[in-house]
Request: fold
Amino acid sequence: MTQKAEMPNAPSVAASATLPRRILVALDASDPAERALTEALRLAAASDGAITGIHAYAARLHDRRFRQMEGGLPDRYRTEDGIEHQRAVHDSLITRGLDIISDSYHDAAGAACEGAGIVYGRLSPEGKNYRRIVEAARTGAFDLLALGAQGLGAVPGAGIGTVCERVARRVTTDLLVIRDPARAIGEGPLVAAVDGSARGFGALRTAPALGRALDVPVHVVAAYDPYFHYVAFNRIASVLSDEAGKVFRFREQERLHEEIIDDGLAKIYRSHLALAGKIAAGEGAKVACALLEGKPYRAIADYLAEHGASLLLIGRTGIHADPGLDIGGNAENLLRVAPCHVWLGAATYAPPLDALAEETIRWTAEAEAKLTRVPDMARAMVRLAVQRFAQESGHTVITCALIDEATARLCPHSGGRREAPAPEPAWSEEADELAATAGDASVVASVRLRAEKRARHDRAASVTEAHVRPFVGAAGIAPRWSAAALARLAQVPEPVRERVKARVEASAEPGEITQADVEAAIAASGRAMAGAMARGGHPEPVGG
Reply:
């Protein structure tokens, strides 16, 4: 579910962001690596920057493997002279051959940079490729590392290769991962995802500068999951004894979670979007903002596919990160499933409003204790929201009374007389059948609880197909494609094929995807493109 973000009045936020100027590009002659170089050239041209290419090769590994395989040589080579001759030939090929290959990669990249008037540097370290790339990126000499999601060993359906995955977990600079070598950044909007974290805002700051340099619109999204705790509490309740249930006070805990999540989280994430809009305005940019509901990475991936995004910018860790975390769960999942290129931001940025609150506002011991009653997954966000409320209200000390006042603003239904809970909705036969298609028993149970939660929120008398369908898709069920549908998809031009495929899978009814489904998606894509051209290629800004 997508909701239009509210933009309440707030102090203007100014920020100054620049594009990366020192760009490291991993080279291996694969199509994704070539696209990484092309995008690095565009960035360097816009920022008056420089590019350094890196190609690492493990000559010692090859030599060691050859020695291990000597026992398998044909008999005619297994003489003293034969073995020594093969060793000399292999050593020459590996030592000189890999140098020649590496030089050829650099020559091609250097020629491209020279043609664009960009300074080019070369790195050709010996050793494991991912390790040498990480070591170079960690020197502090570069602002951005660009590499392909897969290399020369790419196979269909792999998502990302091992080098990309290992590098993504270890680098401390911004990372640009090229997923579709046939598509340029800027062929669709840039989408920045925020969650209130410092790294999320850090990645956001890059988006307006990049959008301005490439003349492409920028969207900002925030996603939250109001269904998770309903599922979790009901599953926990099924295994608690009566005595444990009394100690845990299940129903009170469930009600507290529902009040915080249903009423508070949406407003907290809207405040993140409002702040993001102010940050973008400080850069002289208008952005389209959207609040997404559902499993965050899935909701964001669906938004990217729906809007034909060309680049996602997201912090490498999010609001729930602990100090030792290498990459956040949503960032990692999106690195694998996003239908566009991904920019993992490493820089942190505390918007002035939050930074000022952290420095000038203090919490009483009683207020800190009261905050511990907030569910763990929401505590950091609630702290931010209360501090922002205190800042806007002119308070410098947060008390229990101030928390109650902020809660009344964020969660208007949390105090006073509560409405009677909605009755448990019955299940329609169609909804029952659709939920049963979600997968194994555990997934089906989760889908059923999420659908019940949505039906209860709507105060519906029964759970219908409309309540179930969003979660069947979110469960990751792979649709079945008919041969005719696959054949029709193959006729779609390659640059837009993945977008059409995503549109088909997002809109198709449960069951087998037919040729008619593909035709409908192609027609819808055509209408979307015509609409974008009629608007001049720009999305509707917030408040527009």
User: Anything to note?
Assistant: The longest helix spans residues 80-115. The first strand starts at residue 2 and ends at 4. The chain has five domains: 2-16+182-349, 22-138+149-156, 353-410, 426-474, 480-534. DSSP finds 21 helices and 17 strands in the chain.
